[in-house]
Amino acid sequence: MSREEVSNELIDEKVKIKEAKKFGVDPSITDIDQSYAQMSSRMRITPDQLTKSLESQGIRPDTLKARLRTEMVWTSLVRGRYKESLQVGEKEVNEPPRRAATKPRSRRSNTSCSRSC
Length: 117
Prior knowledge:
mainly alpha, single chain, about 120 residues, disordered C terminus, 5 helices
């Protein structure tokens, strides 16, 4: 990963955390530790072993925990923002799919589209 990519990821993390604070989304240390433990469990190691593995690679465990926190807050924000539009009721599941009433598409490839597609 290039230096610019790392910088962009760090900026993205800061923006996500700032947005989360606006909406009062802030996971507890316990939540973050549980996520860390779940990650280690999926790797079939203990949290202490994960910590040692990270440290042996020159990575502070707090760096991973900060990343986990960012992912947790962003997921919460997205779920909160799109919750209503993401919910599908039983009625919609049981209905046959509806076809959109649009003109038939041409068989041209979209890769060389001369207008905005």
